[in-house]
Design a protein that fits this description.
The complex is a heterodimer of chains A (115) and B (112).
Chain A: E1 5-7, E2 10-13, E3 19-24, E4 31-37, E5 43-50, E6 53-57, E7 65-68, E8 75-79, E9 88-95, E10 104-106, E11 110-114
Parallel strand pairs in A: 2-11
Antiparallel strand pairs in A: 1-3, 3-8, 4-5, 4-9, 5-6, 7-8, 9-10, 9-11
Chain B: E1 4-7, E2 10-14, E3 19-25, E4 32-38, E5 45-51, E6 56-59, E7 62-67, E8 72-77, E9 86-92, E10 101-102, E11 106-111
Parallel strand pairs in B: 2-11
Antiparallel strand pairs in B: 1-3, 3-8, 4-5, 4-9, 6-7, 7-8, 9-10, 9-11
The chains are: A mainly beta (115), B mainly beta (112).
Chain lengths: 115, 112
């Protein structure tokens, strides 16, 4: 069964450094998402992306965050200047847009640790 | 905005018994309610979903019920097995393509 793939599985970064989290959505999916889960808290929506532009973003997704689809297969989340509070599990999801309403499929996540 | 509450936070059941997890939501405009199962070290995996035009949906040992008037929905797992042990999340959204608002999760432990 096709899967959403995320790399790396664990990223350790110094505070203030830039970090890029990578995702390969399921082939032929066109709707992409990033969520995050701070330890002990709910999974929170960050941003959705469709047709090469942001569809919706949450209050968390401020100017320090950006997303990009640099080629036909990757979808990235960049945090420009990381803070301690950015430490969390980051999940990428993708969704098919054909054949009616389709669910979101999640990757296994990247654990981001800011030191 | 939408707020989803999920109970219980932990649930321990004997193998073969049933497990029920309940969620409530606040936004009456929500009309899509998926359930995800998350095993250790893995991402959330969709197990079943329901839309507001349906009151109940079943898939083998898993069923979901929705009460739009009361704004709550529940996951029912029958004949539980050790491999059902995981964290289960409910979520709500305006549509399947919209942002998902998650509940806090339920840790289910099935003991042999």
């Amino acid at each position: 069964e096709p899967e959403v793939t995320q790399t790396p599985s664990h990223q350790v970064t110094q505070m203030g450094q830039e970090v890029i989290l990578r995702c390969v959505p399921i082939s032929n999916h066109l709707y992409f998402y990033w969520y995050r889960q701070i330890l002990g808290q709910k999974v929170e929506f960050l941003v959705s992306f469709y047709n090469n532009e942001i569809s919706e973003k949450s209050e968390i997704f401020d100017d320090q965050f950006s997303v990009e689809r640099p080629d036909g297969s990757n979808f990235t989340l960049k945090i420009r200047s990381t803070k301690l509070e950015d430490s969390a599990m980051y999940f990428c999801a993708s969704r098919d847009t054909t054949g009616g309403p389709q669910p979101q499929h999640f990757g296994d996540g990247t654990r981001l640790s800011i030191l | 905005g939408e707020n989803v509450e999920q109970h219980p936070s932990t649930l321990s059941v004997q193998e073969g018994d049933s497990a029920v997890i309940k969620c409530t939501y606040s936004d009456s405009a929500s009309n899509y309610f998926p359930w995800y199962k998350q095993e250790l070290g893995k991402g959330p995996q969709l197990i079943i979903d329901i839309r507001s035009n349906v009151g109940e949906k079943k898939d083998q040992r898993i069923a979901v019920t929705l009460n739009k008037t009361a704004k709550h929905f529940s996951l029912h797992i029958t004949e539980t097995q050790p491999e059902d042990s995981a964290v289960y999340f409910c979520a709500a959204s305006m549509d399947s393509w919209g942002k998902l608002q998650f509940g806090a999760g339920t840790q289910v432990v099935v003991t042999p």
